[in-house]
Amino acid sequence: MKVAAARKRRNGRKPLGQSLVEFTVLLPILIMMLSGLIEFGFLLNYYLDLVDAAREAARFAADDDPLIREGPSAGQTDDTFYIFARDMVLQSIDIGSGGQISIDTTGNDDILISAFSVLDGTVDRRFPDLDADNLCDDTDFYSYAGNQTSEFSCADVNSKLNPDAPNAGIVLVEIYYEYHMILGLPWITAFVPDGITLHAYSMMPNTAAEPTPTPP
Questions:
Q1: 69, 97, 121, 210: which could join 49 in a potential S-S bond, CB 3.0 to 4.6 Å?
Q2: pLDDT digits 0-9 by tens, 103-147
Q3: Cα–Cα distance measured from residue 49 to residue 53, given in angstroms and rounded to the nearest whole number
Q4: How many domains are contained in the chain?
């Protein structure tokens, strides 16, 4: 009876060698999963830094006037407002990321800034008005590097508005940043390209861009 019980316990016990083999087989998979989580954790952290920078710059630009003309710079007009907002983006990115993120104007990175005038619940103008046609053109926006175009058309912005809302002004800050993997491990780059363009943006009200009432 005792011999049978001992044999039963011995047969039910997993041999140590089998556990080591199973661990050896699963270890590469666990390492791949863990390294993937770490890589995309870096990406998410970078994206959140960009979102914070866009929000900070839009909040800063909300108190400025996009319609003041201060003379052309690099082919742009109405540029002082946009340059100040751009510099706030660069400063916020540098501080928020601890210097780890920098906008590469020679690559695909860019900073876009637009202002919208909302009349009777509809977007009717977009600034800077580069072609001076007093219309809401999707090609009217300030671009720091000229590498990207705005993800938001006038129709896109209009779709986010309450049609019953009063006249208003809006400032839009967009940041494009091409994230290059920090670990860059081959089992990650085999499935995900090493160069992911992140797009962060923020919108804030801007009273200076509100349409001016037509005198009776």
A1: 97
A2: 999 999 999 999 999 998 899 999 998 888 888 999 999 999 999
A3: 6
A4: 1
